[in-house]
Amino acid sequence: MSLSQYEAFIKAVETGTMTQAAEELGYTQSGLTRALNTLEEQWNLKLLTRGRNGVQLTTEGQQLLPYIRTVLHDQRRLSERIGEINDLREGLIRIGTFNSVSAQWLPGMIKRFQQDYPRIRFELLHGTDTQIVSWIADGRVDVGFVAYPTLPELESEFLYRDPIVGIFSEDDPYARMEKLNISELPNLPYIALNEGVEDEITAILDKNRIILDARFVESDDHAVIAMVEKGLGISLMSVMMIQGFDRRIVAIPLDPQGYRDLGIACRSHNLLSGAASRFYEYARRWIAEEYKPIEL
After folding, report:
1. How far apart are CA 175 and CA 95, in angstroms?
2. 132: Cα within 13 Å, side-chain hemisphere
3. CB–CB of 40/68 below 8 Å?
4. For the segment 10-58, what is each residue's pLDDT rounded down to a tens digit?
5. Residue 296 pLDDT > 60, yes or no?
6. Does the first or last residue of the chain, that is N or C, have fewer Cβ atoms within 10 Å of its Cβ?
7. Are residues 119 and 90 in contact, defined by beta-carbon separation less than 8 angstroms?
């Protein structure tokens, strides 16, 4: 058994297909299959079932998955600790993120980090807040950007309070309002966005006892903004999510005001590699410098 076999197993589980796992690892599909078959033969266990619907864990595979992740994580920490001794010349940082953070924050953070550590690599995993928190807890990512506060068993820090606004087409009569009273929302054609921290918007609606019958539900913020621009409905988004779009839309503050609070989290600072720990600090410093401090 070898670490490359463990990596093949983990990647097959994460991607759900042998084809994609082979591509991401730089294997041929037959080479990946041989590595997994050899691992199963060595352990005398069936770890995966493979069929038309992709790769599925067996019961034995489910039981061993967290242990294999731990072995790979510890090996990565060992390699990166050696890299720290050599001034962080090598390393991999895995980050859990969602669309608006990837668009507005990560390019600046990573650029600044790589000015000092140009050979550190990054792997970005996009998901919902629930997924990102789970990835942090089970070690699939080193750090993640999350809705704040998050689970108490994680170590986390507040980064930024992002206002929620209503977005309208420039041609919509409501676009001339100074504020959008949230009680008006049930009377408007609504386009719901599932962007990654959608529970923040749900919490605002629940707090104000607003029930919406969404005309559309979309997971892509670009698509929602385009639909709003064409007059198909209105939506609620955070200010961060609409920055950088050259669209004929108008953002109107909510009354009462609404926000989403964003933070950064990890399982434990003591478990972070040197590269991940350094990036965590760079991310905090970048926010403090690029955005005005906001008191909770």
Report:
1. 37
2. 29
3. no
4. 999 999 999 898 898 888 888 888 989 998 999 999 999 988 788 899 9
5. no
6. C
7. yes
| 205 in a structural domain | yes
Backbone angles phi, psi at 44, to 5 degrees: 55, 40
Domain stops at, among 86, 111, 127: 86
Among 86, 114, 144, identify where a domain stops.
Answer: 86
Please state the rounded mean pLDDT for residues 195-222: 77
pTM metric for this prediction: 0.69
Q: Establish how many alpha carbons lie within 13 A of residue 135's alpha carbon, considering only the half-sphere containing its beta carbon.
A: 24
Cβ atoms within 10 A of the Cβ of 93, count? 24
Residue 179 counted as domain residue: yes
Domain that holds residue 215: 162-259
**Would you place residue 1 in the very low, low, confident or very high pLDDT band (cuts 50, 70, 90)?**
low
pLDDT tens digit string along 154-204? 999 999 999 999 999 999 988 888 999 999 899 899 998 875 445 678 888
Higher pLDDT, 84 or 74: 74
Domain CATH for 193: 3.40.190.290
Number of structural domains, the chain? Answer: 2
Residue 111 lies in a domain: no
Asked if 252 contacts 168 with a C-beta cutoff of 8 angstroms, the reply is yes
Residues 81 and 166 in one domain: no
Pairing of strands 155-169, 249-266: antiparallel
- Tell me the pLDDT tens digit for each residue of 116-125: 999 899 999 9
Residue 123 lies in a domain: no
CATH number at residue 4: 1.10.10.10
Amino acid at 192: A
Q: What is d(CA 87, CA 73) in angstroms, rounded to the nearest whole number?
A: 20
pLDDT mean across residues, the chain: 88
Confirm if 132 and 144 have CB atoms less than 8 A apart: yes
